[in-house]
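Example 4.3 (complexes with small molecules)
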Amino acid sequence: MTCPFCRAIENGDIFFASAHFAGIANIAPIVPGHSLLVPRRHIERLTQLGPKELAELAPAAHQVGEILGEAFRSTGVNWSIQDGSEAGQTVLHLHLHILPRCHGDMPAPGDWYPRVERWDKEILGSARRPRLPDDARAAITLRLRDIARKRGFKN
Ligand SMILES: [Zn+2]
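Answer. The structure with zinc ion bound is encoded below.
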């Protein structure tokens, strides 16, 4: 299996699960806590989401944002989907970036977007972006999973 998100789901390497979505701690976070919400089935585009999945997307993203907010003491959040190659998508499994934001975490608040765009270009098999060591990411996943459980979210 070559899809990194399917592999993470398959391996249980997730901190949040709803009926149709999973939350994954990013291997190359742009800010601490930068995570991905992905459909549990391998689909590429937003238009492939069924009505139940569509209805679940925003509540699931909101819950992941709450988990990240508690873990990283963030006071803001960014959501972003690159839907289609024209929009900058390169990982062909639909994914919503969720970035917890803190005051002063970047020189300007809007600096996150070019970095997300680069993330999407670089993430497949590239060593250009510094990556979290496996044990560091596993520790974050466990911490987030714990918060999700305490909040009554499935995982
Ligand atoms: Zn996949």
